[in-house]
Design a protein that fits this description.
This protein is α/β, with parallel strands linked by helices. Helix content is about 45%, strand content about 15%.
């Protein structure tokens, strides 16, 4: 996880709160940017310490799944959160139903554009969660052929790419004009909003992801139309709680495929929920964030 992003700081708070409640030692580690190889190195070090359990967000399945399986084979239970590794031996996944979240965002874009227009996406390619979100948008757009996806920009974890590309897109006019921007990750929204503001053009739609203070401020100011809110605090809180339960009541076989077991003690997926935040309810989220900061 990108530990300096507000989304992951919120998740860390939930993890630590659960650790205090359950009286266990918890550490939050990870790279300060999108870096699957650095995440792999951190996971490898964690396995060497042989903890009672590991909660992980999977930045890149191809990179991290073998090490997740190695952890389970070493007797360490693993639960994934936020971004999953479906084919791994993790016990289960806690997070957002990203396909439905994408569909929620897709319906918003269609409503605001009146069913037609050019759309650009910003994403981090290779992450299961962002891929599912994009698929959700496409599922909704397929019924509206006048909605065109012009580009899907992979920012590769570098938010400056989002700013630079938005400035390029804002210069397009006529039939090539970009009517809407959608950010499928939590970090790029502010940069896209900044670029739109820099252009001094006010007729572009921006839909973002998550509820950082910058995003909420952007909704209040009108630069951002809406954002899809997730619950990283809840994901991490439930994740630690789940690992504690596994520690005190371990399964007979840790590396079993519980997804195909009709009598499994574990779910396949715990959906922590999503909601759409816009001007009609943004003050509720701002108040909630202020309360948590006290």
């Amino acid at each position: 996880a990108n530990t300096v992003v507000p989304y992951w700081q919120t998740a860390a708070a939930g993890f630590k709160q659960a650790a205090a409640q359950y009286k266990v030692k918890a550490r939050v580690v990870g790279p300060e940017g999108y870096d699957p190889q650095a995440a792999l190195a951190e996971l490898h070090k964690a396995i060497a310490d042989h903890p009672a359990g590991i909660l992980i967000s999977v930045a890149d399945v191809s990179v991290l799944q073998p090490e997740i399986d190695a952890a389970v084979n070493a007797g360490i239970p693993v639960i994934t959160m936020d971004s999953d590794a479906v084919g791994s031996r993790r016990l289960y996944f806690i997070g957002t139903n990203n396909l439905e979240a994408g569909r929620l965002g897709g319906r918003r874009v269609i409503e605001k554009l009146g069913g037609k227009g050019n759309v650009v996406f910003f994403t981090i390619a290779g992450q299961p969660n962002t891929e599912e979100r994009l698929k959700g948008f496409k599922d909704i757009f397929i019924s509206r052929p006048e909605i065109k996806i012009v580009d899907v920009v992979d920012i590769k974890g570098d938010v400056r790419t989002a700013f630079d590309k938005t400035m390029e897109f804002m210069a397009l006019t006529g039939a090539k004009k970009i009517d809407a921007f959608v950010c499928l990750d939590s970090a790029s929204g502010k940069m896209v909003a900044d670029a739109i503001n820099r252009s001094k053009i006010t007729d572009r739609l921006l839909v973002t992801w998550d509820v950082s203070q910058d995003t909420l401020d952007g909704i209040k100011a009108g630069t951002i139309d809406a954002t899809i809110a997730q619950k990283p605090y809840t994901m991490a809180y439930i994740g630690l709680k789940g690992l504690d339960e596994v520690f005190h009541a371990p399964p007979e076989q840790l590396n079993k495929d519980y997804a195909t077991d009709s009598f499994s003690p574990y779910p396949v997926f715990v959906d922590t929920g999503t909601s759409l935040v816009d001007k009609s309810n943004v003050d509720l989220y701002i108040a909630s964030a202020a309360k948590e900061m006290k």
